[in-house]
C-alpha cells in the first residue's frame, strides 16, 4: 500500500516514462521556443528543470546553457531522460530525484528554474514556489508553465474530475488568481504572462495514463452531460478532445 | 562485498550541488555505505545505482553514536 503522496505520483508515472519522452504534446510547442529564445544569451547559466517529466525542457535548454539539473520524483522517468540525453549527446544534463516541495539544493544555486506541466502534481504548490525562490540566484529567473483552471466553479469541478478520472495522481489545476497570489506571497516579481491554448487529442491524452474503461466512460459521460457553458469553456468536441488554457509565467527573484 | 558498497560512484557534479532537503545543510559522502549523511538531520540518504535518493521519507535515521562518527 502506498501512503506517501510523492510515492503515489512516482509510481503512477514509472510505467509511462517512455510515453512522456515521445509525447508530441510535451516535445513541441511555442512555450519551448520561447524558452530557447530567452536562454539564447545565457551560455554560462545553470538551470534546474523542476518536475522534468520526459525531459523536454532539459533537451531544449542543454545546448544553450552550461549545466542542466533535471529533477523529478519518478526515477524511471529520470532514467529515460538520462538515456535520451546520451542519445542526443547532451552531456551537460544530470538528473536528481527529489520532490519539488523539499529540494536538495543550496540557496541561490541556479540562474534559471523552469517547471513545465508539473505544478499540478505538487502536493503543496506554495511550498514548491517557496523552494524555487530559495534555490534561485538573486537575479535569477523562474519560468512556470502549466494548464490553468477556469474561474467558473462548475467548469473547474468538471475539469478536476475529468483530470482525476484520467490520472489518479492528479492533484489540482490552479486558476490564474491562485498562481499570482502565491507568487506575490513569496515575493517573486511577475514579469510577464503568456497565455496559450493546449488542444488535447482524446486518444493520445488517454493512452498516456491508460485509465480503466470505467474511467474513460465516465469522462465521456461527464463531457456529454456538462452544462452548455462548461462545454463552451472547456471546448469539448464530438471526438471527446478538448482545450485547456495554459500560462507561461516569467518571474524574477 | 555487500550490495550497497558495489554501487557505482556518485556523479561528482551532483555532490557539489546537493544539500540535505530537510535542513539545507551540508552532506557527507559515505562511499562504503553508499549514503549521503546529514548530521544536522541525523539522516542517511541512500545512493541507489549511483543516484542519490534525496527524499526524507526514504532516508535512514541515524543514532547519536552514528552521527558522532561523522563529526
Automatic annotation (TrEMBL), chain A:
Pfam families documented for this protein: Methyltransf_11
Domain (Methyltransferase type) ranges: 48-144
Keyword Transport (UniProt): no
Gene Ontology MF: a single term: S-adenosylmethionine-dependent methyltransferase activity
Keywords attached to this entry: Ubiquinone
Protein name as catalogued: Ubiquinone/menaquinone biosynthesis C-methylase UbiE/MenG (UbiE)
Automatic annotation (TrEMBL), chain B:
Entry GO MF terms: methyltransferase activity
Top-level division of the source organism's lineage: Bacteria
Presence of keyword Transferase: yes
GO BP field: methylation
A Pfam family recorded for this sequence: Trm112p
Gene Ontology cellular component terms for the protein in this record: cytosol
SUPFAM superfamilies, per the entry: Trm112p-like (SSF158997)
Alphabetic keyword roster: Methyltransferase, Transferase
PANTHER family, A to Z: PROTEIN PREY, MITOCHONDRIAL, ZGC:162634
Similarity remark: Belongs to the UPF0434 family.
Protein name (record): UPF0434 protein R53529_LOCUS671
Amino acid at each position: 500500500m502506498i501512503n506517501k503522496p510523492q510515492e503515489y505520483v512516482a509510481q503512477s508515472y514509472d510505467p509511462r516514462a517512455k510515453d512522456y519522452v515521445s509525447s508530441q504534446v510535451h516535445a513541441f510547442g511555442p512555450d519551448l521556443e520561447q524558452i530557447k529564445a530567452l536562454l539564447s544569451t545565457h551560455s554560462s547559466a545553470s538551470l534546474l528543470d523542476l518536475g522534468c517529466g520526459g525531459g523536454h525542457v532539459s533537451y531544449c535548454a542543454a545546448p544553450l546553457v552550461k549545466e542542466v539539473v533535471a529533477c523529478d520524483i519518478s526515477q524511471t522517468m529520470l532514467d529515460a531522460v538520462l538515456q535520451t540525453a546520451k542519445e542526443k549527446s547532451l552531456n551537460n544534463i544530470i538528473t536528481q530525484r527529489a520532490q519539488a516541495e523539499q529540494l536538495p539544493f543550496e540557496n541561490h544555486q541556479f540562474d534559471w528554474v523552469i517547471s513545465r506541466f508539473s505544478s499540478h502534481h505538487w502536493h503543496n504548490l506554495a511550498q514548491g514556489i517557496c523552494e524555487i525562490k530559495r534555490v534561485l540566484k538573486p537575479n535569477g529567473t523562474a519560468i512556470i508553465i502549466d494548464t490553468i483552471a477556469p474561474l467558473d466553479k462548475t467548469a473547474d469541478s468538471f475539469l478536476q474530475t475529468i483530470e482525476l478520472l484520467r490520472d489518479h495522481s492528479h492533484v489540482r489545476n490552479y486558476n490564474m488568481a491562485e498562481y499570482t497570489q502565491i507568487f506575490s506571497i513569496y515575493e517573486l516579481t511577475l514579469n510577464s504572462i503568456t497565455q496559450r491554448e493546449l488542444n488535447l487529442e482524446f486518444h493520445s491524452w488517454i493512452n498516456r495514463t491508460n485509465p480503466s474503461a470505467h474511467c474513460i466512460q465516465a469522462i465521456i459521460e461527464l463531457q456529454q452531460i456538462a452544462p452548455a457553458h462548461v462545454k463552451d469553456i472547456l471546448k469539448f468536441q464530438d471526438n471527446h478532445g478538448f482545450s485547456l488554457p495554459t500560462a507561461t509565467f516569467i518571474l524574477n527573484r | 562485498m555487500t550490495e550497497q558498497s558495489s554501487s557505482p560512484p556518485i556523479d561528482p557534479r551532483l555532490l557539489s550541488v546537493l544539500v540535505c532537503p530537510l535542513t539545507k545543510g551540508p552532506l557527507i559522502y559515505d562511499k562504503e555505505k553508499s549514503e549521503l549523511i546529514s548530521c544536522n538531520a541525523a539522516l542517511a540518504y541512500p545512493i541507489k545505482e549511483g543516484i542519490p535518493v534525496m527524499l526524507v521519507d526514504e532516508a535512514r535515521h541515524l543514532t547519536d553514536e552514528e552521527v558522532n562518527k561523522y563529526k
